[in-house]
Amino acid sequence: MPNHKSAIKRARQNVKRRARNRHVLTTVRGYVKDVRAAIEQGDAESAQAMLPTAIRALSRAGDKGVLHKNTAQRKIGRLMKAVHHLAPADVETVKA
C-alpha cells in the first residue's frame, strides 16, 4: 500500500489507465476478430465493410500507446493483405 501522497495519486492514475487501456485493447481485438471471421468464411463484402473500423481502432490504439505503433501498423497491413487476397480482382480494396 502506498504511503506517500504522490504514490497514492500514482496508484489511482494507474487503475484508471489500466481500465482505459484494457477497454481499448478488447475493443480492438473484437474488431480484428470480426474481420478474421469474415475472411475465414470467405465473405469478401463483409470483410471489406468491417475493415475500415478495425483499421481505425488499431490506428487509435497505436496513437494512444495501448499498442506499439509498429505493432498496430503490422496488424493493419496483415489484415489488409488478407482481405485483398480474398476479394475478387474487380473489387476495389480499402485504403487506410
Beta percentage is: under 5%
Helical percentage: over 70%
- The CATH homologous superfamily name equals Ribosomal protein S20
Distance between the termini: 45 Å
- What's the number of helices? 3
Structural class: mainly alpha
Low-confidence stretches: none
Bulk shape:
elongated
CATH class: Mainly Alpha
Describe it:
The chain has 96 residues and is mainly α. The protein has one domain: Ribosomal protein S20 (Methane Monooxygenase Hydroxylase, Chain G, domain 1, Up-down Bundle), CATH 1.20.58. Helices cover 79% and strands 0% of the residues. It is built from 3 helices and no strands. It has helices spanning 5-41, 44-64, 69-86. Helix 1 runs parallel beside helix 3. The longest helix has 37 residues, at 5-41. The chain starts with a helix and ends in a 10-residue tail after the last helix.
Brief write-up:
This protein is an all-alpha fold and 96 residues long. It is 79% helix and 0% strand.
Core attributes:
about 100 residues; mainly alpha; Methane Monooxygenase Hydroxylase, Chain G, domain 1
How are the SSEs placed, and which strands pair?
Layout: H1 5-41, H2 44-64, H3 69-86
